[in-house]
Amino acid sequence: MSEKDKNDKSTAEEKLDEAELAEKLGQTIAQNSKHLIHCLTVIGQIEGHYVLSEQNKTTKYEHIIPALVAIEQDRSVEGLLIILNTVGGDVEAGLAIAELISGMKTPTVSLVVGGGHSIGVPLAVSAKHSYIVPSASMTIHPVRMNGTVLGVPQTLSYFDKMQDRIVNFVLKNSRIREEDFRRLMMNTEELVLDVGSVLEGEKAVELGLIDRLGGLSDAMECLYELIENTEKRYQ
Fold first, then answer.
1. Residues 177/208, Cβ–Cβ less than 8 Å
2. Cβ neighbours for 147, distance < 8 A, ≥ 6 positions apart
3. pLDDT tens digits, residue range 44-62?
4. What H or E segment, with its residue span, contains residue 110?
5. What pLDDT, in 10s, does the model give residues 180-209?
6. 76 given a catalytic annotation
7. Which residues face 127 on adjacent strands?
8. What is the C-alpha separation between 227 and 205, in angstroms, rounded?
9. Does the structural domain 33-139+198-228 have CATH classification 3.90.226.10?
10. What pTM was estimated for this model as a whole?
11. Which of 48, 115, 137, 190 is 20 to 30 Å from 84 at the Cα level?
12. Does residue 141 carry a catalytic annotation?
């Protein structure tokens, strides 16, 4: 096989790998850009320890976690853009992903489009800077399972501890005040079948939950700025 044929084969395999990455995992890497950016999407329900129905659009945490590890150690990837449109899902899986993102040295920016509900809230604030489009919304509510409250003391204690973990994470990674966040979480006057609140984009920024109102180009410009003002991870 000639050198040209080998190069053509290598290029074709790279394109196939990128196509599979986008189709199966919802991830893309922009090659011909100002900086090498990895785009990670979190959509539908976050699937954790239990496999959801095939009818559900899901983001699987066993795919996301190794992807984040690969991004963090890849010398060529300069930044990570996280696009969220999620209804929530497995609380522990979502919080695990959020903790990994918040601990990355790679510059990260999140953008909420459509919705960043439930455990999507910690995911949205886990990046170094967060954006939300004006038409998006975020639902804040107490931790619960399938919309029911179980009257077993041990279960309620577990839920309280999990809720405190989420609250502490959000407070640490955003500018919202604790009293505001807990008030929104325990609001009984807004949601008909649940406890909690729905925030539109502008209100989420006003309360300090999300950093800025903006779209894709704003998030990209912020990520470029972070990259250019951050010391290289590797010399």
1. yes
2. 193, 194
3. 888 877 777 777 788 888 8
4. strand 108-116
5. 999 999 888 887 667 889 999 999 999 999
6. no
7. none
8. 23
9. yes
10. 0.80
11. 190
12. yes
